[in-house]
Amino acid sequence: MRTDRKRLWSAAAVLAAAVAAAAVCSGAGDGMTPGAPASGPGALQTTVSGAGPAGENDDAAIDFDALREQNGDIHAWIRIPGTGVDYPVLQKRDSTDPYDNYYLDHTVDLKEGYPGAVYSHAVNATDFGDPVTVLYGHNMKDGSMFASLHSYEEEAFFEENRMVYVWTPEAVLTYEIFAAVNFPDTLITYEYDFSREEEVGRYLDDIGGCAGNVSEDCAVTEEDRILTLSTCYSDQEFNRLLIEAVLVEEKERER
Q1: How many C-beta neighbours within 10 Å does residue 165 have?
Q2: HEC letters along 165-204
Q3: Distance from C-alpha of 203 to C-alpha of 193, rounded to nearest angstrom
Q4: pLDDT digit string (tens) for 136-175?
Q5: What pTM was estimated for this model as a whole?
Q6: For the segment 106-116, what is each residue's pLDDT rounded down to a tens digit?
Q7: Strand, helix or coil at 99?
Q8: How far is CA 75 from CA 15, 84, 100, 108, 243, in A?
Q9: What domains can you pick out in the chain, each with its CATH number?
């Protein structure tokens, strides 16, 4: 069990992140307009990921050597067919804080400001090998970043758009979405000790107890590897939309 002191620290960290995210969700000061590039550096988006339909095996188009020449913090690429999610994934590797939120308000080309970037905390391994990996992205008013994940609040969309693809330098990971829920705004990787299977089970139980869409035909257990995508609501300060997906295939990348 976490100590009260650490819980207070965690709550303060989450509150600071939530305040920054709330400004973006409400559209205050984000500097974004409809039709703006889906990620900070538009050239990166179009030249690296524009080869073929979402979900197509376009390993050759995702050149991590080239990506890391632009930003060494890029460690993966995520694509969700049916949504606008098609972005590099970053993690601030030189930070001493395992919950560093640098990319909350810095773009992939290291410019300060929004829309930030899709990122993970350093508490998660960059190979997506942890029991639960959490990625964060803003709910931008122009529909970019993780804004289109709110489509999963609609049952029909949830049923028809279930696949998530993640590329790392070594592997292609395929996930199936099993839940889209309204979850309390908490620092998930701190509040749950995912090194213990019973804590993964507790997390799954908590997901199942939330309002939202949960698949009845996708069995998930404590032994699975889970991907959590987290974004905010425009009208709920203390809750987050979580998209939960389970790993169904992992294969080596074509060279």
Answers
A1: 21
A2: EEECCCEEEEEEEEEEEEEECCCHHHHCCCCCHHHHHHHH
A3: 10
A4: 999 999 999 999 999 999 999 999 999 999 999 999 999 9
A5: 0.80
A6: 999 999 999 99
A7: coil
A8: 27, 20, 16, 12, 21
A9: 4-252 (2.40.260.10)
